[in-house]
Design brief:
Two copies of one chain form a homodimer. Chain A has about 180 residues and is mainly α. Helix content of chain A is about 65%, strand content about 5%. In chain A, a hairpin with an 8-residue loop joins strand 1 (about 60) and strand 2 (about 70-75). Chain A is elongated and about 65 Å long. At the A-B interface, helix 1, helix 4, helix 5, helix 6 and helix 7 of A face helix 1, helix 4, helix 5, helix 6 and helix 7 of B. Chain A binds a DNA duplex (28 and 28 nucleotides) through helix 2 and helix 3.
Chain lengths: ~180, ~180
DNA sequence: TTTGGCATGTAATCCGTTACATGATTAG
DNA sequence: CTAATCATGTAACGGATTACATGCCAAA
């Protein structure tokens, strides 16, 4: 009887390897540190934790040091085993659906194309700025362990991609508004 | 009473500006020519067409020249109006969820990281090859009208991005397996 | 004659976000 | 006192894929 786990469940499980934490903390962690490439809502986190507990991959206990009703979740050995298997498997390719490209493709008005591409360029530049902040934060927090390497690699990924968007936009804009 | 249209419905509507066609043809067109950045399944196309007909943005008639039961859909003036409005609006940013990055982030085993990054690099290179084919096809089909410009721009987008992935992978691999 | 491609659609299911519902604690 | 933040969870809804169900026509 093989349980069918979703990426979300493994994400939740994997985050518990960083440290035992509550659903609330996990949500903060996701948005603050891996928000540039992953998101989880409460509507996913709490049900996932529940399923993981049912499957024995995670244990739940109430934090005695907290005045509030706070539940700390911790990964079990079985959880680590399953997580390792998932991590070793090839990441499933995410479906590509890009509304910007769709609008460009379906659009015959050059003015609109120009506007969308210009905006995309500005957004990419803004993303580069934000990635810079994140990188600084990451470097200051844990200076040079292996965890930091993985974090930096993910930042770099998005940096390369954002730079690619800027260059692409420049190329397209040059073609849209030539010699002037 | 404002209808709430999805991106899928506008995609379907927009494709009908290329030419009137059937649901089946649309599905072929999507996978063959814009598959690198957009996908639609029959489970989306047929219900969308139905809703668009109900809303008066599309008309449906049976193709008399076909022996089979073939329904040709055509965009109406009202459809064009609505489409124009949608095209002018800012594309909504697609949520970023990248399982590769998640696995890298959660992984402490360098061998697994190395494997995933190597694979990502190979996949990007393969994508570049496919984009090359698509570009040739596009250039040969309609040599130099405005439609071809839009098509090329979308291809270029993915080319820039795929090249960025290759460069990123090279950088990460260099750090994972230094001096040898 | 049987297989592959044309052709249409619906139903089941999955996965995700947003909205809802509730309440305690703490800082201003 | 009162607003922000901590904290937990469920319900409703939306949007997409996959599986299902059906059948004709053409070519091998």
């Amino acid at each position: 009887m093989q349980e069918n786990r979703t990426s979300t469940e493994f994400a939740v499980l994997g985050l518990l390897t960083l440290k035992p934490m509550s659903g609330y903390e996990m949500r903060q962690l996701v948005t603050q540190s891996i928000g540039h490439f992953w998101s989880e809502s409460y509507g996913q986190i709490y049900p996932s934790l529940k399923r993981l507990v049912n499957g024995g991959l995670v244990t739940k206990k109430t934090d005695p040091s907290s005045k509030r009703d706070k539940h700390i979740y911790q990964i079990t050995d079985e959880g680590r085993t399953q997580l390792d298997r998932w991590r070793a498997a090839a990441p499933k390719p995410q479906p590509t659906r890009n509304e910007l490209l769709l609008k460009l493709f379906l659009n015959e008005d050059p003015a609109i194309a120009l506007e969308h591409v210009t905006n995309a360029r500005l957004q990419a530049i803004d993303q580069l700025r934000q990635l810079g902040f994140l990188e600084e934060k990451l470097r200051s927090e844990h200076s040079d362990d292996s965890r930091s390497f993985a974090g930096l690699a993910t930042l770099e990924y998005d940096r390369y991609r954002a730079e690619a968007v800027v260059r692409w936009a420049d190329a397209v804009l040059a073609e849209l508004a030539p010699q002037r």
